[in-house]
Design a protein that fits this description.
Distance between the termini of chain B: 28 Å
Strand content of chain A: over 45%
Order of helices and strands of chain A: EEEEEEEEEEE
Oligomer: heterodimer
Number of strands of chain B: 9
Structural class of chain B: mainly beta
Strand content of chain B: over 45%
Helix content of chain B: under 10%
Structural class of chain A: mainly beta
Largest sheet of chain B: 6 strands, mixed
Number of helices of chain B: 0
Largest sheet of chain A: 7 strands, mixed
Order of helices and strands of chain B: EEEEEEEEE
Largest interface: A-B, 24 and 28 residues
Number of strands of chain A: 11
Distance between the termini of chain A: 40 Å
Shape of chain A: globular
């Protein structure tokens, strides 16, 4: 069974940093691309970052460029999101998602339960 | 302001058919596949339709997707109470080099 379990969320002051982790199991982590998607309280979904299976390709949403860094450790089956210079508008539930393959490469076929990040003084 | 446009709400009585639209542009829906996600209250989103009209294993055939030009739609036939949820469309955007989502449509079963 595919499982994605996020951790590392919490309360942080504006301008602070936080590192999110996602532990993957139930599939061969190293052959799948991964993404972070977030959802502000009461709002819709927003894609944040993408990393290819071998980390050679990374994309970031304009809203987080220069502040967030996505990375992965295939040996550990883990995905990370280093978030710096946090702002109030980064407050959201952050979901770890698995990217599809082949013809459905653009789909996010499995999602974790999410971890809440609150940026407030 | 979402790049993809969805109606904020939709509703129907049990057994009815409900359709949700998703409008984009040539850089996203016009040139790439559309995927749909269902988010039940208090839960994480779940992939509902991929590559415009394909259903993952386990998704009832009451759910169907279609795409034409720069628009897509999700249809729910034989609406059931457990279909009450938020539905999101999404696609890769060639110009933005990233994924874009619709604002979401809340479906209510009357």
């Amino acid at each position: 069974e595919v499982q994605l379990v996020e951790s590392g969320g919490g309360l942080v002051q504006p301008g602070g940093s936080l590192r999110l982790s996602c532990a993957a199991s139930g599939f061969t982590f190293g052959i799948y691309s991964m993404n972070w998607v977030r959802q502000a309280p009461g709002k819709g979904l927003e894609w944040v970052s993408y990393i290819s299976s071998g980390s050679s390709t990374i994309y970031n949403a304009d809203s987080v460029k220069g502040r967030f860094t996505i990375s992965r450790d295939n040996a550990k089956g883990s995905l990370y999101l280093q978030m710096n210079s946090l702002r109030a508008e980064d407050t959201a539930v952050y979901y770890c998602t698995r990217g599809g393959t082949g013809s459905y490469w653009s789909a996010f076929d499995y999602w974790g339960q999410g971890t809440l990040v609150t940026v407030s003084s | 302001q979402s790049v993809l446009t969805q109606p904020p709400s939709g509703s129907g009585t049990p057994g009815q058919r409900v359709t949700i639209s998703c409008s984009g542009s040539s850089s996203n829906i016009g040139g790439n596949s559309v995927n749909w996600y269902q988010q039940l209250p208090g839960a994480a989103p779940k992939l509902l339709i991929y590559t415009n009209n394909q259903r993952p294993s386990g998704v009832p055939d009451r759910f169907s997707g279609s795409k034409s030009g720069t628009s897509a739609s999700l249809a729910i036939s034989g609406l059931q109470s457990e279909d009450e949820a938020d539905y999101y469309c999404a696609a890769w955007d060639d110009s933005l080099k990233g994924w874009v989502f619709g604002g979401g449509t809340k479906v209510t079963v009357l």
